[in-house]
Amino acid sequence: MTTIRISWLGALALAAGLLGWVTNWWMSRNGFPTPVLHLSSLFTLAAIVVVTLVLGMRVNRWRNGERKRMLDPLLATRTLVLSQATAYAGALILGWHLGILLDQVALVSVRSTLVPVWSSVALIAGGIVMIVVGVLVEGFCRLPPDDDGGGQEANEGEYA
């Protein structure tokens, strides 16, 4: 499994931002509501972040030497996949709502409400938190290099 590449997260956020901007531009000029997630979706984002962190902390404790029990390899793999999915979903949410925010800022003077603007800002912050937690927990799943003294480490970059 490959590591998360920040450049891929940036490209994904940029593509989602462009799509969000174009979609919001078209919808707002044709009488449709703003395509922003409801603020209650922040509870879902928070739940995903908490579950990712809890599972990541279990793997991190095992990796740092608390090995009273054997770590279930399936749990470690699921934690790694969840961390990467959290980061990529965060990039999508960040980009989409940043694109919407850019179009909404231009319309602030003619809008009677700022709810879409504040919703976009809140979800942008949620996307950033998801990216940070995803990258952090992916790092928890990485095995430390062996100290063999024999030159090249065999498991450097491998996952728990």
List keywords for this structure.
4 helices, elongated, mainly alpha, 160 residues
Structural write-up:
This protein is mostly helical and 160 residues long. It has 4 helices and no strands. The chain has helices spanning 6-29, 41-63, 73-106, 115-140. The longest helix is centred in the middle third of the chain and has 34 residues, at 73-106. The model is unreliable at 149-154 (pLDDT under 50). The protein has a domain at 38-63 and 71-143. Helix 2 (41-63) runs antiparallel to helix 3 (73-106) and helix 3 runs antiparallel to helix 4.
What is shown here, in short?
The chain has 160 residues and is mainly alpha-helical. The chain has four helices and no strands.
Question: How do the helices and strands line up, and which of them pair or pack?
Answer:
Blueprint: H1 6-29, H2 41-63, H3 73-106, H4 115-140
Assign the structural class, choosing from mainly alpha, mainly beta, alpha/beta, alpha+beta, or little secondary structure.
mainly alpha
Individual helix count: 4
Alpha-carbon distance between the two ends: 12 Å
Mean pLDDT: 87
Low-pLDDT residue intervals, each spanning 5 or more residues: 149-154
Anisotropy-based shape: elongated
Gyration radius over CA: 20 Å
Percent strand equals: under 5%
Q: Please estimate the helix content.
A: 55-70%
Output the helix-strand order: HHHH
Largest sheet: none
> How many strand units?
0
